[in-house]
Amino acid sequence: MNSLQNRANAVMAFSISAIFCLLGAIALSAFIIPTSPNGLVAVNSIKVVTGRYDKTWFDYKTRDNQFANTVMQIDADLSSLFHWNTKQLFIYAVAEYSTPTHSKNQIVLWDSIIKRKSDAVIRKKGIKNKYSVIDVNKKWTDIHANVSLHWNIVPYVGFMTYGHSQASEPYAFPLPSGIQT
Ligand SMILES: *[C@@H]1O[C@H](CO)[C@@H](O)[C@H](O)[C@H]1NC(C)=O
Predict the structure, then answer these.
(1) pTM above 0.85, yes or no
(2) Cross-sheet strand order for the sheet of 121-128
(3) What is the pLDDT of residues 130-160, one digit of tens each?
């Protein structure tokens, strides 16, 4: 009955349960660690250019799509999001606006991955949009969008959690010429 194999089996089963409890506790601990992330995205310039999509896009023939070229500045301190269960942060700046045809539109302007706590204090100027900024209606007329910084916290164990900064004041797309914010 009490063979060596039985004992080994019991020890194994107990260790595995203990490890899972520990991992569970680490995963849950992320919800009780106080954090104080803050971030601001400001748009310094918005220029609208008219053109085509790139060649691989099905709508390549259309010449009059309006793309917005934005230049942003980000001031954020996300270092408090780095704790023992943070592997990395995925951060992205989002423009949000509504139009008469679509009440909620969100466009990712820029993104980045932060792997170290020492890189989590971000003071960056002159950030150009990394992805095409185009509305579904392909026109930027009378649209006001606010921008905010979003983050996903990628953990070592457990669930990915999300957060975002306060949104900026709405910016007119395009900014009236001559106005710099
Ligand atoms: C940002 O814009 C969206 C869409 O217009 C709006 O729903 C949201 O309330 C705005 N956020 C702030 C903080 O003004």
Answers:
(1) no
(2) 38-51, 65-77, 121-128
(3) 998 999 888 898 899 999 999 999 999 988 9
